[in-house]
Write a structure and sequence with these properties.
- The complex is a heterodimer of chains A (about 750) and B (about 150).
- In chain A, about 25% of the residues lie in helices and about 20% in strands.
- Chain A has about 750 residues and is α+β, with helices and mostly antiparallel strands.
- Chain A has three domains: about 10-210, Aldehyde Oxidoreductase, domain 4, CATH 3.30.365; about 220-300 and about 360-435, Aldehyde Oxidoreductase, domain 4 (2-Layer Sandwich); about 305-350 and about 445-750, Aldehyde oxidase/xanthine dehydrogenase, molybdopterin binding domain (Aldehyde Oxidoreductase, domain 4, 2-Layer Sandwich), CATH 3.30.365.10.
- Chain A has a seven-stranded mixed β-sheet, with helices on both faces. A five-stranded mixed β-sheet of chain A has the order 15-23-22-21-16, with helices on both faces. A four-stranded mixed β-sheet of chain A has the order 3-4-5-6.
- Chain B has a five-stranded mixed β-sheet with strand order 2-1-5-3-4.
- Chain B has helices spanning about 20-30, 75, 85-90, 100-115, 120-125, 135-145; strands spanning about 1-5, 10-15, 45-50, 55, 70.
- In chain B, α3 crosses α6 (about 135-145).
- The radius of gyration of chain B is 15 Å and the shape is globular.
- With about 150 residues, chain B is of the alpha+beta class.
- In chain B, a hairpin with a 2-residue loop joins β3 and β4.
- Chain B has six helices and five strands.
- The chains are: A alpha+beta (about 750), B alpha+beta (about 150).
- The interface between A and B is large, with 71 and 61 residues.
């Protein structure tokens, strides 16, 4: 471990850049970056009397400042991580002030994506709190002339039980600040029995503001003298403006001018798409002005992209031998033995995020520096793209993170933040870029459209003797490399490379597909289509064998064992196999429990009702779902009840975690019912909630019961893992209710009416 | 010139009468608790009360609010939390929270018209308000809790 400096000694620190600092988690090493104090906004924690690391500060009045460096989009992460700090510090939550960090690499990774905030920063937060607690105990012991070992903490105070002496944290802050910062090895962590907050949970610290209209989202940011911008983007990805009417928009009251934005230079990554911005006194005038732009476009090569033809191509590719990414035993010779063979083609279309808050950002370029306010999941990426677009050092970009009105992965891509900065530079005033809902739907980074082909040979009991699966989808790396056509290991890992069944002969393949729109990650990403295909195919095999789908699922999962995927290069969501092995026993356990909780096979169901089951591991969390549907005579699907069992290791905030899985069931309902983005001649057809509907209160599950397994395993993800098993469980339930098999999404493609 | 009352304060508006109330509230008055979600009355994030009735501010032109009494989320809890807000907090309803101003304004209007709503009446009353985070079952529970109190 590197040397550790006490950040409260500011004179000493000035000018230090690099490897010092508070060295924590294995791959998240924050660094001090105070070379120019005018560049980075200091936090209250930085300025506090005792400031042992970038996440914590304690004032002499006892106020504890904790920095939340992850973005808040409804997962309550900006409460849950500071709560871990407060617990290890033994701080009184009522005296804690949480402040939101700007984008700054000294905090380590800030991309609030991939369901890994707790997993990656749980230890960091514990160390941050325990370090301050250690120093406070040392300071008190020195003052009393006793051994630190004879002292302990008691909710915001250090006590010496033998002499019944007590000093509050505020009284000790100054003396503690003069002590060296301890090494991690010297720290003592609380035993779990002593936890006040971890595992018990806490409401969002924003809860009241969220219910009273006081919460500030990106949409609500403002600066004196700012103007509003609305941008007409090229309707076809990669298109350019040929000509437009510069003057006509000015006839709209409130419109000030029109400003062209250059098209991106491929690969697009997070660059602005380009187009024409209309600048106005208010949002509505900017929207109105756009209607008069009369732009002629040069669409470029993607104008031949049509979803129906593309779907056919994906299926054709999936029916051909593709790139092998995992192979065990001998699939081909087993298939040749003459056992019965079963196969299926599956399809999931492009999906849009449709967060309730459309893309929006405010930026001011002034004196060679940018200040931005944005609902971003990834403020450091915003810094990087603004730096690149404006040709200024990254350190000269301050990105403030507002609350996010939903994110689901879209707001990890800061193209919209860059637009505001680019326009502010051109206009020399603060600019707020506001996307309409139509912009949001038409210019997303979509979850990939995917075709999958599965084939199995079966023994006398209907159990697979050989299993082949191929998946074909335009990959996310296509935004960084225009020639990328194969899935990257990270996304193939999502429910594909790690297909967990106990089958002796297994081959997993991936085929090429070229992207014609921006592809991105959306809540659980490739797990959505992979879990849909595997878990639906499994249900089909069970029915084909005349076996109970739940019993069959447990049979193919097989006995408890650890799957060895090291030779496949399986990235395991960036975690080590030692800490987070792939354990089929845990998948079995959630499956067994969901069978019990749902009353599977024991409950009498009403007319038109059916139960479906699915189980899946994603983001290192094991989830099983049983969905009950009622399909009405006219084919409407209602979801009276959902049971989900979750093994996410240690769960820091249980009630909030339950809410994440309730929400995942609704998100999955939207995907299944109506999630489909299509392109015609390169342009996205859908535009708003009329043609890209998401689940409403009368369509969502009526009741989702979430059961969390009590576990001491290290913490895993909770934001995303509920989505993948929910969707096939729903579709399997529809089969149970109607006899109609769903092999392609959304459900609108299948006539579920009784006579149909 | 349009005269109206917003959260009990007299206001006059001399701009384009086609401007939706939403943008007058947000960009002119700075009342940003009312949210922009879709612009075409499909999501309910912009729900406010006009003379006590829930309307979608994004499709309510200023010309239609002359002489009207407008209430937004900012005024609902002014004198302590409204029972609907208290129920929202009790049931930990919000996730991202962006739609919740509209949900709460709609729920208050629903409970005024139907003080003890059934599940079907809640579905019918709230189906115009989208929550992408999926907090619907908590919304339903919170409405039932709030229904126990006069609103």
């Amino acid at each position: 471990m590197s040397a550790i400096y006490n950040l409260s000694r500011r004179g000493f620190l000035k000018g230090i850049v690099g490897s010092g600092a508070f060295v924590l988690g294995a791959h998240y090493v924050p660094r001090i970056l105070w070379a120019d104090e005018t560049v980075l906004n200091r936090t209250e924690a930085d300025l506090a009397t005792l400031h042992p690391n970038v996440f914590v500060g304690i004032d002499s009045d006892g106020t504890v400042h904790i920095v939340a460096h992850r973005s808040e989009m409804g997962t309550v992460i900006r409460t849950s991580l500071p709560m871990v700090v407060a617990d290890e510090l033994d701080a009184d939550w009522k005296r804690v002030k949480v402040e939101q960090a700007i984008g700054d690499s000294r905090y380590g990774d800030q991309n609030t994506d991939g369901s890994h905030s707790i997993r990656s920063f749980y230890d960091t937060m514990r160390v941050a709190g325990a370090t301050a607690r250690f120093m406070l105990i040392q300071a008190a012991a020195q003052q009393w002339g006793v051994s630190p070992a004879d002292c302990k903490t008691d909710l915001h105070a250090v006590v010496h039980p033998a002499s019944k002496r007590r000093l509050g944290y505020g009284e000790l802050a100054s003396a503690a600040s003069k002590l060296p910062v301890p090494k991690k090895e010297d720290l003592q962590f609380k035993h779990k029995d002593a936890w006040r907050y971890i595992g018990k949970g806490m409401d969002s610290l924003d809860l009241t503001d969220l219910c009273t209209g006081k919460a500030v989202y990106g949409m609500d940011a403002k600066l004196d003298g700012m103007v509003y911008a609305s941008i007409e983007h090229p309707p076809v990805f990669g298109g350019k403006v040929k000509s437009y009417d510069e003057k006509a928009p000015l006839q709209v009251a409130g419109v000030q001018k029109t400003v062209p934005i250059d098209p991106f230079k491929p690969p697009c990554a997070f660059q602005p798409l380009g187009g024409i911005a209309v600048i106005a006194d208010n949002t509505w005038s900017a929207f109105q002005g756009r209607k008069k732009l009369n732009i002629a476009w040069e669409n470029g090569p993607n104008e031949t992209y049509n979803s129906a033809a593309y779907e056919k191509e994906l299926h054709e590719t999936a029916r051909q031998p593709c790139k092998v990414i995992r192979s065990e035993g001998d699939v081909d010779s087993t298939f040749a033995k003459g056992e019965p063979v079963f196969e299926g083609d599956y399809y999931v279309p492009l999906l849009a995020h449709a967060s309730m808050e459309p893309m929006v950002a405010l930026a001011e370029f002034k004196d060679g520096k940018v200040r931005a306010w944005a609902p971003t999941q990834n403020p450091q990426a915003a810094q990087a793209i603004i730096s690149q677009e404006l040709g200024i050092p990254k350190e000269n970009v301050i990105c403030h993170v507002t609350l996010l009105g939903g994110g689901f992965g879209r707001k990890s891509k800061p193209d919209y933040v860059a637009e505001a900065a680019v326009l502010s530079k051109k206009l020399a005033k603060p600019v707020k870029v506001v996307w309409s809902r139509e912009d949001d739907i038409k210019f997303d980074y979509y979850n990939a459209v995917a075709a999958m082909y599965l084939k199995a040979s079966l023994d006398a009991k209907g159990k697979p003797t050989a299993w082949l699966q191929r998946s074909v989808f335009p990959p996310i790396p296509s935004i960084y490399d225009v020639n990328a056509v194969y899935g990257d290991p990270g996304h193939l890992a999502q429910g594909w490379t790690d297909m967990p069944y106990d089958i002796p002969n297994l081959r997993i393949e991936n085929g090429p597909a070229k992207a014609h729109v921006r592809i991105g990650w959306l809540r659980s990403v490739a797990n959505i289509y992979h879990a849909f295909a595997v878990q639906t195919f499994t249900d089909e095999l069970a029915h084909r064998a005349g076996r109970d789908p739940a019993e069959y699922l447990l049979d193919v999962i097989g006995p408890p064992r650890t799957i060895d995927l090291k030779s496949t290069g399986y990235p395991n969501y960036g975690a080590s196999f030692e800490t987070y092995p792939w354990e089929t026993g845990r998948l079995r356990r959630v499956t067994e429990l969901v069978i019990e909780k749902s009353g599977w096979g024991k409950r009498k169901l009403g007319k038109g009702h059916g139960l479906g089951i699915a189980a899946h591991r994603s983001f290192l969390t094991y989830v099983a779902a049983v969905v009950e549907v009622e399909v009405t005579d006219d084919g409407d699907v209602k979801i009276p009840r959902v049971e989900m069992v979750v093994d996410a290791g240690l769960v820091v905030n249980p009630e909030i975690t339950r809410a994440q899985f309730e929400g995942a069931a609704v998100f999955g309902t939207s995907v299944a019912r109506s999630g489909e983005i299509t392109a015609k001649d390169g342009a996205i057809v859908q535009s708003n909630f009329n043609d890209y509907p998401v689940a409403r209160i009368d369509e969502a599950p009526y009741q989702t019961n979430v059961h969390i397994i009590d576990s001491d395993a290290p913490p895993a993800g909770v934001g995303e893992p509920g989505v993948p098993p929910f969707i096939p469980a729903l579709c399997n339930a529809i089969f149970a209710a109607t006899g109609k098999r769903i092999r392609q999404l959304p459900l609108t493609r299948t006539n579920l009416a009784r006579a149909g | 010139m349009i005269q109206l009352k917003v959260n009990g304060v007299d206001r006059s508006f001399g701009g384009n009468q086609n401007m939706p109330l939403l943008w007058y509230l947000r960009d002119v008055l700075g009342l940003t608790g009312t949210k922009f979600g879709c612009g075409v009355a499909l999501c309910g994030a912009c729900t406010v009360h006009r003379n006590g009735e829930a309307v979608r501010a994004c499709v309510t032109p200023m010309s239609s609010v002359s002489g009207a009494d407008i209430t937004t989320i900012e005024a609902v809890g002014e004198k302590g939390l409204h029972p609907v807000q208290a129920a929202w907090i009790q049931h930990n309803v919000p996730q991202c929270g962006y739609c919740q101003s509209g949900q709460i304004m709609q729920a208050i209007a629903l409970l005024r018209a139907t003080p003890k709503p059934t599940d079907e009446e809640i579905d019918e009353g709230m189906a115009g308000n989208i929550c992408r985070c999926g907090t619907y079952q908590r919304i339903r529970a919170a409405i039932k809790t709030a229904a126990k109190e006069p609103v």
